Amino acid sequence: MTFNEIDKTGRIKNEKAKGHLGQIIEESFFEYEINSNKEADFKELGIELKVTPIKKNKNGTLSAKERLVLNIINYEDEYKLQFDSSSFWSKNEKLLMMFYHWTKGVPRKDYPIIEVYLHNYSKSDLEIIKQDWNYIIQKIKDGKAHELSEGDTTYLGAVTKGASKGSLRSQPFNELPAMQRAFSLKQSYMTALVRQLIDKEDLISIATKEDLSKLTLEEVIQSKFQPYFGKTVNQISEDYNISFNPKAKNFVHQFISLLLDLPTIQLNKIEEFQKANIVPKTIRLEPNGKPEQNMSFHNIDFNEWAYNDWEDSEWREYFEATKFLFFIFEYKEKTEDNKNRELYFKGLKLWNMPESMIESELYIFWKKVRNIINNGIKIKRVKHGKYYRNNNNLPKASEESYFHLRPKGRDGKDIVVLPDGQEITKQCFWFNRDFVVDIINQ
Predict the structure, then answer these.
(1) In terms of pLDDT, which residue wins out, 149 or 1?
(2) Of 276, 288, 309, 345, which alpha carbon lies 20 to 30 A from 269's?
(3) Which domains does the chain have, with CATH numbers?
Protein backbone atom coordinates (compact mmCIF):
# COMPACT_ATOMS: atom_id res chain seq x y z
CA MET A 1 0.00 0.00 0.00
CA THR A 2 1.05 3.62 -0.54
CA PHE A 3 0.88 6.26 2.19
CA ASN A 4 -2.03 7.86 0.35
CA GLU A 5 -3.97 4.59 0.63
CA ILE A 6 -3.14 4.25 4.35
CA ASP A 7 -3.78 7.86 5.42
CA LYS A 8 -7.17 8.54 7.04
CA THR A 9 -6.39 11.97 8.53
CA GLY A 10 -5.31 14.05 5.54
CA ARG A 11 -1.83 14.39 7.03
CA ILE A 12 -0.27 13.27 3.72
CA LYS A 13 -1.29 16.60 2.12
CA ASN A 14 1.44 18.38 4.08
CA GLU A 15 4.38 17.66 1.75
CA LYS A 16 6.86 19.70 3.80
CA ALA A 17 6.27 18.11 7.21
CA LYS A 18 9.21 16.05 8.50
CA GLY A 19 8.43 12.71 10.08
CA HIS A 20 4.80 12.73 9.09
CA LEU A 21 5.02 9.46 7.17
CA GLY A 22 5.68 7.65 10.45
CA GLN A 23 2.83 9.56 12.04
CA ILE A 24 0.47 8.37 9.29
CA ILE A 25 1.33 4.76 10.15
CA GLU A 26 0.84 5.47 13.86
CA GLU A 27 -2.51 7.23 13.51
CA SER A 28 -4.12 5.62 10.47
CA PHE A 29 -2.80 2.05 10.59
CA PHE A 30 -2.09 1.23 14.24
CA GLU A 31 -4.62 3.81 15.46
CA TYR A 32 -2.76 5.21 18.44
CA GLU A 33 -2.14 8.86 19.29
CA ILE A 34 1.17 10.44 18.40
CA ASN A 35 3.29 10.88 21.53
CA SER A 36 6.81 11.50 22.78
CA ASN A 37 6.77 8.88 25.53
CA LYS A 38 10.04 7.49 26.85
CA GLU A 39 8.64 3.97 26.54
CA ALA A 40 8.60 1.98 23.28
CA ASP A 41 5.57 2.60 21.06
CA PHE A 42 4.14 -0.85 21.85
CA LYS A 43 5.26 -0.81 25.48
CA GLU A 44 3.50 -4.06 26.43
CA LEU A 45 5.66 -5.84 23.83
CA GLY A 46 8.77 -3.66 24.19
CA ILE A 47 8.65 -2.83 20.47
CA GLU A 48 9.43 0.55 18.92
CA LEU A 49 7.94 1.44 15.50
CA LYS A 50 10.25 2.92 12.85
CA VAL A 51 9.20 3.91 9.33
CA THR A 52 12.27 4.39 7.14
CA PRO A 53 13.12 4.86 3.42
CA ILE A 54 15.16 2.73 1.05
CA LYS A 55 16.27 3.61 -2.47
CA LYS A 56 17.38 1.76 -5.58
CA ASN A 57 20.90 2.54 -6.82
CA LYS A 58 22.00 2.88 -10.44
CA ASN A 59 23.51 -0.62 -10.32
CA GLY A 60 20.19 -2.11 -9.21
CA THR A 61 21.10 -2.70 -5.56
CA LEU A 62 19.08 -1.35 -2.66
CA SER A 63 20.39 0.95 0.06
CA ALA A 64 19.03 2.69 3.12
CA LYS A 65 18.41 6.31 2.15
CA GLU A 66 19.43 7.57 5.60
CA ARG A 67 20.47 6.57 9.10
CA LEU A 68 17.73 5.40 11.49
CA VAL A 69 17.37 8.12 14.14
CA LEU A 70 16.30 6.78 17.54
CA ASN A 71 15.80 8.63 20.85
CA ILE A 72 17.38 11.90 22.00
CA ILE A 73 20.42 11.51 24.29
CA ASN A 74 19.75 13.22 27.62
CA TYR A 75 23.31 14.05 28.69
CA GLU A 76 22.16 14.84 32.23
CA ASP A 77 20.59 11.41 32.84
CA GLU A 78 21.97 8.78 30.47
CA TYR A 79 25.42 8.52 32.07
CA LYS A 80 23.85 7.46 35.40
CA LEU A 81 22.47 4.25 33.84
CA GLN A 82 23.84 0.86 32.83
CA PHE A 83 23.32 -0.36 29.27
CA ASP A 84 20.47 -2.72 30.15
CA SER A 85 18.54 0.10 31.87
CA SER A 86 19.53 2.86 29.44
CA SER A 87 17.03 4.94 27.52
CA PHE A 88 18.46 3.53 24.30
CA TRP A 89 17.89 -0.11 25.27
CA SER A 90 14.57 0.49 27.02
CA LYS A 91 13.13 2.09 23.90
CA ASN A 92 14.96 0.32 21.07
CA GLU A 93 15.61 -3.28 22.16
CA LYS A 94 13.21 -4.46 19.45
CA LEU A 95 12.37 -2.42 16.36
CA LEU A 96 9.42 -2.92 14.04
CA MET A 97 10.91 -1.52 10.83
CA MET A 98 8.57 -0.59 8.02
CA PHE A 99 10.56 0.13 4.86
CA TYR A 100 9.10 2.30 2.13
CA HIS A 101 10.52 2.85 -1.35
CA TRP A 102 11.75 6.42 -1.86
CA THR A 103 12.09 7.57 -5.48
CA LYS A 104 13.36 10.97 -6.52
CA GLY A 105 10.61 13.10 -8.03
CA VAL A 106 7.78 10.87 -6.84
CA PRO A 107 5.26 12.54 -4.45
CA ARG A 108 5.44 11.25 -0.86
CA LYS A 109 1.85 10.07 -1.02
CA ASP A 110 2.83 7.52 -3.69
CA TYR A 111 5.72 5.92 -1.78
CA PRO A 112 4.81 2.24 -1.19
CA ILE A 113 5.59 0.15 1.89
CA ILE A 114 7.68 -2.74 0.53
CA GLU A 115 8.87 -4.66 3.60
CA VAL A 116 8.04 -5.02 7.29
CA TYR A 117 10.64 -6.51 9.61
CA LEU A 118 10.86 -7.12 13.35
CA HIS A 119 14.51 -6.47 14.18
CA ASN A 120 16.35 -8.20 17.00
CA TYR A 121 20.08 -7.49 17.21
CA SER A 122 22.40 -10.43 16.54
CA LYS A 123 24.73 -11.38 19.38
CA SER A 124 27.76 -10.00 17.53
CA ASP A 125 26.00 -6.76 16.64
CA LEU A 126 24.87 -6.33 20.21
CA GLU A 127 28.43 -6.60 21.52
CA ILE A 128 29.54 -3.82 19.16
CA ILE A 129 26.50 -1.68 20.02
CA LYS A 130 27.28 -2.04 23.74
CA GLN A 131 30.84 -0.87 23.03
CA ASP A 132 29.46 2.10 21.09
CA TRP A 133 27.02 3.02 23.86
CA ASN A 134 29.79 2.83 26.48
CA TYR A 135 32.02 5.05 24.32
CA ILE A 136 29.28 7.71 24.06
CA ILE A 137 28.64 7.56 27.80
CA GLN A 138 32.36 7.86 28.60
CA LYS A 139 32.54 10.99 26.44
CA ILE A 140 29.71 12.49 28.51
CA LYS A 141 31.44 11.53 31.78
CA ASP A 142 34.66 13.11 30.52
CA GLY A 143 32.83 16.39 29.88
CA LYS A 144 33.26 15.98 26.12
CA ALA A 145 29.69 15.62 24.90
CA HIS A 146 30.43 18.60 22.64
CA GLU A 147 33.12 16.52 20.91
CA LEU A 148 30.89 13.55 20.07
CA SER A 149 30.92 12.54 16.41
CA GLU A 150 29.02 9.88 14.52
CA GLY A 151 32.32 8.60 13.13
CA ASP A 152 33.65 7.81 16.63
CA THR A 153 31.54 4.68 16.91
CA THR A 154 30.89 1.59 14.85
CA TYR A 155 27.17 0.75 14.48
CA LEU A 156 25.40 2.95 17.04
CA GLY A 157 25.93 6.62 16.28
CA ALA A 158 25.35 9.90 18.10
CA VAL A 159 23.88 12.02 15.33
CA THR A 160 23.11 15.74 15.57
CA LYS A 161 19.39 16.28 16.08
CA GLY A 162 18.05 19.79 15.70
CA ALA A 163 17.17 22.49 13.27
CA SER A 164 20.53 24.26 13.40
CA LYS A 165 23.78 24.79 15.28
CA GLY A 166 21.67 26.58 17.87
CA SER A 167 20.09 23.28 19.00
CA LEU A 168 22.18 22.93 22.15
CA ARG A 169 21.84 21.06 25.45
CA SER A 170 23.66 21.32 28.75
CA GLN A 171 26.09 18.57 29.74
CA PRO A 172 26.83 17.52 33.33
CA PHE A 173 30.63 17.75 33.51
CA ASN A 174 31.35 20.82 31.44
CA GLU A 175 29.79 24.28 31.33
CA LEU A 176 30.20 24.28 27.56
CA PRO A 177 26.89 23.34 25.89
CA ALA A 178 26.83 20.44 23.44
CA MET A 179 24.92 19.95 20.21
CA GLN A 180 21.70 18.02 20.76
CA ARG A 181 22.23 14.46 19.57
CA ALA A 182 20.21 11.28 19.22
CA PHE A 183 21.19 7.63 19.21
CA SER A 184 21.02 6.28 15.67
CA LEU A 185 21.74 3.17 13.66
CA LYS A 186 24.17 4.26 10.99
CA GLN A 187 23.10 4.42 7.35
CA SER A 188 25.71 1.78 6.51
CA TYR A 189 24.25 -0.54 9.19
CA MET A 190 20.75 -0.02 7.80
CA THR A 191 21.97 -0.65 4.24
CA ALA A 192 23.45 -4.00 5.31
CA LEU A 193 20.11 -4.96 6.90
CA VAL A 194 18.19 -3.96 3.77
CA ARG A 195 20.44 -5.99 1.49
CA GLN A 196 20.34 -9.02 3.76
CA LEU A 197 16.58 -8.81 4.17
CA ILE A 198 15.37 -7.83 0.70
CA ASP A 199 18.26 -8.59 -1.69
CA LYS A 200 19.04 -11.81 0.27
CA GLU A 201 22.72 -10.84 0.22
CA ASP A 202 25.13 -13.09 2.09
CA LEU A 203 27.76 -11.28 4.14
CA ILE A 204 30.92 -12.75 5.65
CA SER A 205 31.66 -11.95 9.29
CA ILE A 206 35.27 -11.67 10.50
CA ALA A 207 34.43 -11.27 14.21
CA THR A 208 32.55 -13.63 16.53
CA LYS A 209 30.56 -12.75 19.64
CA GLU A 210 33.36 -14.33 21.69
CA ASP A 211 35.94 -12.09 19.97
CA LEU A 212 33.87 -8.98 20.59
CA SER A 213 33.16 -9.78 24.23
CA LYS A 214 36.91 -9.33 24.87
CA LEU A 215 38.12 -7.01 22.10
CA THR A 216 36.93 -3.97 20.16
CA LEU A 217 36.33 -4.40 16.44
CA GLU A 218 39.56 -2.51 15.75
CA GLU A 219 41.48 -4.93 17.99
CA VAL A 220 39.87 -7.90 16.22
CA ILE A 221 40.92 -6.49 12.83
CA GLN A 222 44.44 -5.82 14.13
CA SER A 223 44.70 -9.41 15.38
CA LYS A 224 43.79 -10.78 11.93
CA PHE A 225 46.74 -8.99 10.31
CA GLN A 226 49.23 -8.97 13.21
CA PRO A 227 51.16 -12.05 11.94
CA TYR A 228 52.09 -10.17 8.75
CA PHE A 229 53.38 -6.95 10.33
CA GLY A 230 57.01 -6.19 9.48
CA LYS A 231 57.17 -8.59 6.54
CA THR A 232 57.68 -7.64 2.91
CA VAL A 233 54.92 -8.24 0.41
CA ASN A 234 57.18 -10.80 -1.27
CA GLN A 235 57.74 -12.63 2.04
CA ILE A 236 54.01 -12.79 2.67
CA SER A 237 53.46 -14.10 -0.86
CA GLU A 238 56.08 -16.83 -0.44
CA ASP A 239 55.19 -17.82 3.14
CA TYR A 240 51.48 -18.20 2.43
CA ASN A 241 51.61 -19.17 -1.26
CA ILE A 242 49.54 -16.22 -2.44
CA SER A 243 50.19 -13.63 -5.12
CA PHE A 244 49.75 -9.85 -5.00
CA ASN A 245 50.27 -7.11 -7.53
CA PRO A 246 51.40 -4.08 -5.49
CA LYS A 247 50.99 -1.82 -8.54
CA ALA A 248 47.34 -2.78 -9.13
CA LYS A 249 44.63 -0.24 -8.37
CA ASN A 250 42.80 -2.84 -6.30
CA PHE A 251 45.94 -3.93 -4.43
CA VAL A 252 44.47 -3.29 -0.97
CA HIS A 253 41.37 -5.30 -1.93
CA GLN A 254 43.59 -8.20 -3.02
CA PHE A 255 45.68 -7.92 0.12
CA ILE A 256 42.73 -7.97 2.53
CA SER A 257 40.82 -10.69 0.72
CA LEU A 258 43.74 -13.08 0.32
CA LEU A 259 45.04 -12.66 3.88
CA LEU A 260 41.54 -13.17 5.31
CA ASP A 261 41.01 -16.11 2.94
CA LEU A 262 37.88 -14.59 1.45
CA PRO A 263 36.41 -16.07 -1.73
CA THR A 264 36.22 -12.72 -3.57
CA ILE A 265 37.87 -9.33 -3.49
CA GLN A 266 34.55 -7.58 -2.91
CA LEU A 267 35.12 -5.92 0.44
CA ASN A 268 31.46 -4.99 0.67
CA LYS A 269 30.89 -8.66 1.50
CA ILE A 270 32.64 -8.22 4.87
CA GLU A 271 29.75 -7.70 7.27
CA GLU A 272 31.60 -5.51 9.76
CA PHE A 273 33.05 -3.29 7.01
CA GLN A 274 29.66 -2.75 5.43
CA LYS A 275 27.75 -2.14 8.67
CA ALA A 276 30.39 0.23 10.08
CA ASN A 277 31.09 2.00 6.76
CA ILE A 278 34.79 1.10 6.98
CA VAL A 279 36.71 2.21 3.88
CA PRO A 280 40.16 0.64 3.39
CA LYS A 281 42.90 2.87 1.94
CA THR A 282 46.59 2.31 1.26
CA ILE A 283 49.44 4.50 2.52
CA ARG A 284 52.95 3.90 1.16
CA LEU A 285 55.68 5.64 3.11
CA GLU A 286 59.06 6.57 1.70
CA PRO A 287 62.24 6.11 3.83
CA ASN A 288 61.76 9.66 5.18
CA GLY A 289 58.47 8.57 6.78
CA LYS A 290 56.26 10.51 4.35
CA PRO A 291 54.06 9.22 1.54
CA GLU A 292 55.20 10.22 -1.92
CA GLN A 293 51.64 11.14 -2.92
CA ASN A 294 48.76 13.07 -1.37
CA MET A 295 45.67 10.97 -0.56
CA SER A 296 42.72 11.19 -2.96
CA PHE A 297 39.00 10.72 -2.33
CA HIS A 298 36.11 10.96 -4.79
CA ASN A 299 35.36 13.79 -7.21
CA ILE A 300 33.46 16.78 -5.92
CA ASP A 301 30.00 17.92 -7.00
CA PHE A 302 30.24 21.68 -7.58
CA ASN A 303 26.47 22.20 -7.56
CA GLU A 304 26.11 20.37 -4.26
CA TRP A 305 28.95 22.42 -2.78
CA ALA A 306 27.42 25.68 -4.00
CA TYR A 307 23.80 25.14 -2.99
CA ASN A 308 23.73 22.88 0.10
CA ASP A 309 24.11 24.35 3.57
CA TRP A 310 27.00 23.15 5.75
CA GLU A 311 24.69 21.02 7.94
CA ASP A 312 23.60 19.08 4.81
CA SER A 313 26.85 19.20 2.88
CA GLU A 314 28.19 16.03 1.30
CA TRP A 315 31.68 16.31 2.77
CA ARG A 316 30.49 16.99 6.31
CA GLU A 317 28.25 13.93 6.16
CA TYR A 318 30.95 11.81 4.49
CA PHE A 319 33.66 12.45 7.04
CA GLU A 320 31.27 12.30 9.97
CA ALA A 321 29.92 8.86 8.96
CA THR A 322 33.04 7.15 7.54
CA LYS A 323 35.81 5.18 9.21
CA PHE A 324 39.04 4.69 7.28
CA LEU A 325 41.14 1.56 7.68
CA PHE A 326 44.63 2.61 6.62
CA PHE A 327 46.92 -0.21 5.47
CA ILE A 328 50.36 1.28 5.99
CA PHE A 329 53.33 0.06 3.94
CA GLU A 330 56.85 1.45 3.79
CA TYR A 331 59.96 1.42 1.63
CA LYS A 332 63.26 1.34 3.48
CA GLU A 333 65.30 2.35 0.44
CA LYS A 334 65.01 5.16 -2.09
CA THR A 335 64.12 4.32 -5.68
CA GLU A 336 67.42 5.74 -6.94
CA ASP A 337 69.31 3.39 -4.58
CA ASN A 338 67.35 0.28 -5.51
CA LYS A 339 64.84 0.10 -8.37
CA ASN A 340 63.67 -3.29 -7.07
CA ARG A 341 63.20 -2.12 -3.48
CA GLU A 342 60.98 -4.15 -1.17
CA LEU A 343 57.60 -3.00 0.15
CA TYR A 344 57.12 -3.74 3.87
CA PHE A 345 53.75 -4.09 5.61
CA LYS A 346 54.08 -1.73 8.57
CA GLY A 347 50.64 -2.00 10.19
CA LEU A 348 47.04 -0.76 10.38
CA LYS A 349 45.21 2.27 11.70
CA LEU A 350 41.44 2.71 12.03
CA TRP A 351 40.71 6.44 11.91
CA ASN A 352 37.81 8.84 11.61
CA MET A 353 37.95 12.61 11.38
CA PRO A 354 37.30 14.11 14.85
CA GLU A 355 34.23 16.28 15.27
CA SER A 356 36.46 19.18 16.33
CA MET A 357 38.25 19.02 12.96
CA ILE A 358 35.01 18.62 10.99
CA GLU A 359 33.56 21.75 12.58
CA SER A 360 36.75 23.80 12.32
CA GLU A 361 39.37 23.00 9.66
CA LEU A 362 36.98 21.14 7.32
CA TYR A 363 34.26 23.78 7.72
CA ILE A 364 36.73 26.62 7.04
CA PHE A 365 37.97 24.83 3.90
CA TRP A 366 34.40 24.09 2.74
CA LYS A 367 33.38 27.71 3.24
CA LYS A 368 36.44 28.98 1.34
CA VAL A 369 35.69 26.71 -1.63
CA ARG A 370 32.01 27.64 -1.54
CA ASN A 371 32.86 31.34 -1.74
CA ILE A 372 35.20 30.72 -4.68
CA ILE A 373 32.50 28.73 -6.53
CA ASN A 374 29.77 31.29 -5.85
CA ASN A 375 32.02 34.19 -6.89
CA GLY A 376 32.94 32.36 -10.10
CA ILE A 377 36.04 30.17 -10.35
CA LYS A 378 38.79 32.00 -12.22
CA ILE A 379 40.08 29.69 -14.97
CA LYS A 380 43.16 30.78 -16.90
CA ARG A 381 44.80 28.99 -19.83
CA VAL A 382 48.61 29.01 -19.46
CA LYS A 383 51.48 27.46 -21.37
CA HIS A 384 53.26 24.64 -19.57
CA GLY A 385 56.29 23.54 -21.57
CA LYS A 386 55.06 22.55 -25.03
CA TYR A 387 51.45 22.31 -23.93
CA TYR A 388 48.69 24.49 -22.53
CA ARG A 389 46.68 23.73 -19.43
CA ASN A 390 43.96 25.44 -17.43
CA ASN A 391 44.89 26.88 -14.03
CA ASN A 392 42.28 27.89 -11.46
CA ASN A 393 42.06 29.58 -8.07
CA LEU A 394 40.77 26.56 -6.11
CA PRO A 395 42.81 25.78 -2.93
CA LYS A 396 46.11 24.03 -3.68
CA ALA A 397 48.29 21.80 -1.51
CA SER A 398 50.93 24.52 -1.30
CA GLU A 399 48.36 26.93 0.14
CA GLU A 400 46.55 24.67 2.64
CA SER A 401 47.59 22.68 5.72
CA TYR A 402 45.14 19.79 5.49
CA PHE A 403 43.06 19.57 2.31
CA HIS A 404 43.13 20.73 -1.29
CA LEU A 405 41.40 20.23 -4.63
CA ARG A 406 42.97 19.22 -7.91
CA PRO A 407 42.07 17.15 -10.98
CA LYS A 408 41.76 13.41 -11.02
CA GLY A 409 40.05 12.86 -14.35
CA ARG A 410 41.08 10.51 -17.12
CA ASP A 411 42.53 13.47 -19.02
CA GLY A 412 41.98 17.19 -19.65
CA LYS A 413 38.82 16.39 -21.61
CA ASP A 414 37.15 14.79 -18.55
CA ILE A 415 35.14 17.88 -17.58
CA VAL A 416 32.09 19.05 -15.65
CA VAL A 417 29.92 22.16 -15.95
CA LEU A 418 30.12 24.65 -13.08
CA PRO A 419 27.05 26.40 -11.60
CA ASP A 420 27.91 29.54 -13.61
CA GLY A 421 28.11 27.59 -16.90
CA GLN A 422 31.92 27.42 -17.17
CA GLU A 423 33.59 24.09 -17.86
CA ILE A 424 36.37 22.69 -15.66
CA THR A 425 38.34 19.47 -15.44
CA LYS A 426 36.80 17.16 -12.83
CA GLN A 427 38.23 18.01 -9.41
CA CYS A 428 38.96 15.61 -6.57
CA PHE A 429 39.15 16.12 -2.78
CA TRP A 430 42.64 15.38 -1.37
CA PHE A 431 44.37 15.10 1.99
CA ASN A 432 47.79 16.77 1.99
CA ARG A 433 50.53 14.23 2.53
CA ASP A 434 51.84 15.99 5.67
CA PHE A 435 48.35 15.67 7.15
CA VAL A 436 48.43 11.93 6.35
CA VAL A 437 51.69 11.70 8.32
CA ASP A 438 50.02 13.48 11.26
CA ILE A 439 47.20 10.92 11.21
CA ILE A 440 49.65 8.01 11.28
CA ASN A 441 51.64 9.55 14.14
CA GLN A 442 48.65 10.37 16.35
Answers:
(1) 1
(2) 345
(3) 3-201 (3.40.600.10), 277-441 (3.40.600.10)
